[in-house]
Design a protein that fits this description.
Helix content: over 70%
CATH architecture: Up-down Bundle
CATH topology: Growth Hormone, Chain: A
Number of domains: 1
Mean pLDDT: 83
Radius of gyration: 20 Å
Number of strands: 0
Structural class: mainly alpha
Order of helices and strands: HHHHHHHHHHHHHHHH
Low-confidence stretches: 188-203
């Protein structure tokens, strides 16, 4: 019995460790964007494009992850993705514009594999604890992202921006070692295809309004998150906040999402309708964006409000995928649709924000545009949060 308990604990720890690697290699970039621009000569538009590369990669990879999962199985596919994540992170820090973009694309593709397959592992290994494990791995993901965001500027001061961008590779390698030694029973891929998301999106999913509502919610919350992740430090420094403090508040912006997602997850366990939760989450983002424009001196408060919103929004998006589908097979199909199209939609956020700032010379139009997106997210959340399921 003790060995069984320790084995179960090992399954939990390794899933959380892998989840913790699904953002740090990306979130470490935001606080260093202005430094990257000054030292590499990249324009705001080019830096915005760099922030969009991971999201484009997610959108392009997600619908096809099931092929890798079926060929290698969940265990091997995730292990290989962690090794590719390590290699891509090191390539990005090698120096030079080409390596910066190529390494970012490679590491993001690896993260895209984890984005789709980790929920499948949770469904397989913890079938009776899916909501709890979803909350835990979301919290693990957000917490690691916050740590690397908050530490990006001090790391760059010590080791240069190349060293700061390389550090997540060590974290990914640690996860690969842990994943290699875990002992999880895995059925042959052909016997359990329902656990592998993204397989052959059927026309019946594409024709259902509820599937599009979930997809749009996923895309809008991703757009807001990655736009803020990319440009929030620059927005803060434009109001006179130091680079180091801006990086710290970006970290806190993400860290508060850990507590928010855990609390929201417990609330969602006791309700079948998420419309009220979605409205509150959108309200936090609206308050944050208006506060930045109207009272920038209270930036820590607005960072906390934005963090609560983005942390809960991610949990809502992942939970909508599970709750609105009527079967495990539908979960996989809806996951492929929502993540594939949602991330492609989100890819335009950082790039268009950079272009808008470059044209206007101020962040105010960007913040107003973000407020419009927050309202649209609230509308789609009201629709996707109803107690309905796909046909």
């Amino acid at each position: 019995m003790p060995s069984r308990s320790s084995g179960r604990l090992m399954l939990v720890v390794t899933v959380l460790l892998v989840a913790a690697n699904l953002r740090p290699a990306i979130t470490v970039v935001g606080p260093l964007l202005e430094r990257l621009g000054s030292q590499t000569g990249l324009s705001p538009l080019a830096l915005g494009a760099l922030g969009s590369v991971p999201i484009v990669a997610f959108g392009m990879v997600s619908p096809f992850v099931h092929l890798l999962g079926r060929r290698l199985g969940l265990e091997r596919a995730i292990f290989v993705s962690l090794l590719v994540l390590t290699a891509g992170t090191l390539l990005r820090s090698a120096g030079g514009e080409a390596a910066l973009y190529a390494g970012t694309a490679l590491l993001a593709a690896a993260i895209g594999v984890g984005n789709v397959l980790v929920p499948a592992v949770v469904k397989r290994d913890f079938p009776d604890r899916v909501p709890l494990m979803t909350g835990l791995y979301t919290a693990s993901l957000v917490a690691a992202a916050a740590v690397f965001s908050g530490g990006a500027v001090p790391l760059a001061d010590w080791f240069g921006w190349e060293g700061a961008l390389a550090l997540p590779a060590a974290f990914a390698l640690l996860a690969a070692v842990g994943w290699a030694i875990r002992k999880a029973p895995e059925p042959a891929p052909q016997t359990a295809p329902v656990l592998l998301p993204g397989g052959g999106l059927p026309a019946t999913i594409w024709r259902q309004p509820l599937a599009w509502q979930v997809t749009l919610f996923f895309g809008l919350q991703s757009t807001l998150f990655y736009t803020l992740l990319t440009w929030f430090p620059a927005i803060q420094t434009s109001y006179g906040i130091t680079e180091s403090a801006a990086g710290l508040w970006l970290g806190i912006f993400q860290a508060i999402g850990v507590a928010a997602s855990l609390i929201t997850g417990r609330i969602m366990q006791s309700t079948t309708d998420q419309r009220g939760i979605s409205a509150v989450v959108m309200g936090f983002m609206a308050v944050a964006l208006l506060g930045i424009m109207l009272a920038p001196g209270l930036m820590p408060v607005w960072a906390l409000c934005a963090g609560v919103s983005t942390g809960c929004s991610l949990l809502l998006a992942l939970t909508f995928i599970s709750l609105r589908a009527g079967s495990p097979r539908q979960v996989g199909r809806l996951s492929g649709m929502a993540q594939g199209l949602g991330y492609l939609l989100a890819a335009f956020g950082p790039m268009l924000a950079g272009a808008l700032y470059q044209a206007a010379g101020t962040w105010t139009p960007v913040l107003w545009a973000a407020l419009v997106l927050a309202v649209l997210q609230g509308v789609t959340g009201h629709l996707a949060g109803r107690n309905l399921q796909l046909d």
